[in-house]
Amino acid sequence: MTLSHAAHAPPLARPRRLPAGLAAIAPALALVGLVFVLPVLALLLRSVLDPQPGLQNYAAFFASTTYLKVLGNTFLVAGTVTLFTVPLGFPVAWFLAIAPGFWSKLLFAVVILSMWTNLLARTYAWMVLLQRTGLINRTLMNLGVISEPLPLINNLAGVTIGMTYIMLPFMILPLHATIRSLDPAVFQAASLCGATRWQAFTRVMLPLTATGIAAGALMVFVMSLGYFITPALLGGTSNMMLAELIAQLVQSLLDWGLAGAAALVLLTVTLAIYAVQLRFFGFGQARS
Fold it and tell me: CB–CB of 135/199 below 8 Å?
């Protein structure tokens, strides 16, 4: 090839490279796909392939009143726990945001330490506290508040108490970050305009912390939907949740198809709730 031909020859195609940011996270994405995505897809595929191709597992799930009761109980427990964690977590998050440095760090350490403590150990501790001869019933009887022990375990009350305690940090931390970001001058302006403390709280603070409340409530609700250990130990057979049902279908009945169908129902509901939260809080916050 002459020099003139070489000058007019089309340039060689360069090999495409991944963007710098994507190349940096490619190993992490591969690990997530291998450890999380593939097992979930394999389980979901079994829901339509086991024992034979079709939707018979989903038909059996929605046709059974027992399974639908478990699904409804799952939403009941998750919703109840969320409703309790919001009013309990808000004052703690507020105190963490305004307290002096020492007390704020001390309380924050207590909150974090409760998350680091083994979940099974915390659940067994609540089993000891809530039983008929436990510390709570004995204290109430000694004070004359009750005449006989309260049924606080193997029912919805025990599951709610145990899971509310476990989920509180996941409500406190998002609220704490939101409250810390508020400008104190906003509340001073509300006070100068004649607002009472209650009006400043309901008309100023609550709207400004709505995104933090929504984030914490979503985290608590979604995590509660898939909880297994605490409901299994503190709840009775009449308070079974969907995660416990899936475990029994796999371990005891070896019905992987029906377990996969139940898992897909739970996953679909979780993604739908997450999409609603993004629609009304996440995207709106991004636009502002």
Answer: no
Going by C-alpha positions, the residue among 221, 209, 186 that lies closest to residue 74 is 221
pTM of the full predicted structure?
Answer: 0.79
Q: How confident is the model at residue 112 (pLDDT cuts 50, 70, 90)?
A: confident
- Residue 64 three-state SS: coil
From the CA atom positions of the chain, what is the Rg in Å? 26
Question: What is the per-residue pLDDT across 170-199, written as a single tens digit (0 to 9) for each?
Answer: 999 889 888 888 888 888 888 888 888 888
The label of the residue with tokens 């995104």 reads: 211
DSSP annotation string for 214-247: HHHHHHHHHHHHT--HHHHHHS-GGG--HHHHHH
Cα distance between residue 50 and residue 257, in whole Å: 5
CB 195 within 8 A of CB 84: no
